[in-house]
Design brief:
Largest sheet: 2 strands, antiparallel
Shape: elongated
Helix content: over 70%
Number of strands: 2
Strand content: under 5%
């Protein structure tokens, strides 16, 4: 019992660190991407570069984004709650529902209250004001992360890869459609990640005494593959954006096809890499949050 309580304590500490780290990363992304001229320039380059080959992907992008509505979110939330309930996990059903609701409500509140100064970098969209974080991306990511929590361990890794892929596609789609800047999608993932850590703390608090954490239930390989893939994508994004920084004195409309494509592709890699890392962190610890129990 003492060993189990110590393990729970360290898990709780890890979740607090994750929540604080992702919150701090959200603030850094917001301050750089929204409140610095360089950050706005990089976002605008990526958003302008989405025109390259846009006519080829307009159909799938529109289909994906238009499928995300309040009704579809409610249906997905109900399905996730149902999966938890048929597994006999009432606390998990409530927590997963609160994770989805909290992430999406806070995303909308942040988008409404955060300000975006006009540095003259993107006059075409200046009147639209702040768009960070992305609501569509938060919908996809919150459903994907909640799914990792409620799925049985036998299919959890497959669900994590499918969910992360879906959330990444949604984030890149908002960029491809010109609905959101890349920092909007990244910020949305960080909001969801912070809520996921908070949800983990709730699950630990209500964990039953007969719960049994089996080391063999840990998804180390799946989490490692997802995390490494995310880290590689983030590294590629950093290299691409670093290459662009040397050209930041050039107006976006004067840039050629190559820098615009690099800005778009590098930002898309950053979007995909962020959700992959967030999903990997959840997958790595979920066996401690939703363990087996005796009987």
């Amino acid at each position: 019992m003492r060993v189990r309580e110590t393990a729970r304590g360290w898990t709780a500490v890890w979740l607090v660190v994750l929540a604080l780290t992702q919150t701090a990363m959200f603030v850094l992304v917001w301050r750089f991407a929204v409140h610095s001229e360089l950050g706005q320039w990089l976002d605008t380059v990526a958003l302008t570069g989405n025109r390259i080959g846009q006519d080829r992907i307009d159909g799938p992008v529109d289909t994906l984004l238009n499928a995300m509505s309040v009704v579809s979110l409610l249906v997905a939330t109900a399905v996730i709650g149902f999966i938890a309930l048929i597994r006999g996990r009432k606390a998990l059903a409530v927590t997963a529902t609160l994770l989805i609701a909290g992430a999406n409500v806070s995303t909308q509140l942040l988008k409404y209250y955060l300000t975006r100064p006009d540095f003259g970098v993107d006059p075409e969209r200046a009147a639209a004001g702040n768009s960070l974080p992305s609501g569509h991306t938060a919908v996809a990511a919150s459903v994907a992360i909640a799914l990792i929590l409620v799925l049985p361990r036998q299919v959890r890794v497959a669900g994590a890869f499918l969910g992360a892929g879906y959330a990444a596609a949604a984030g890149v789609a908002t960029l491809s459609a010109g609905w959101h800047r890349p920092s909007d999608a990244v910020a949305a993932y960080l909001v969801v990640g912070a809520w996921a850590a908070a949800a983990g703390l709730v699950l630990l608090f209500f964990q039953r005494e007969q719960a049994v954490v089996e080391p063999g239930d840990a998804h180390r390989l799946g989490a490692a593959v997802l995390g490494v893939a995310g880290a590689v994508a983030l590294l590629g994004s950093a290299l691409a954006l670093s290459w662009l920084v040397d050209r930041s004195t050039v107006a976006v409309e004067e840039l050629g096809r190559r820098p615009l494509f690099i800005g778009y592709a590098g930002s898309a890699a950053g979007i995909a890499g962020t959700i992959a890392v967030v999903a990997a962190l959840v997958l790595a610890v979920v066996h401690r949050l939703v363990p087996r129990w005796k009987g």
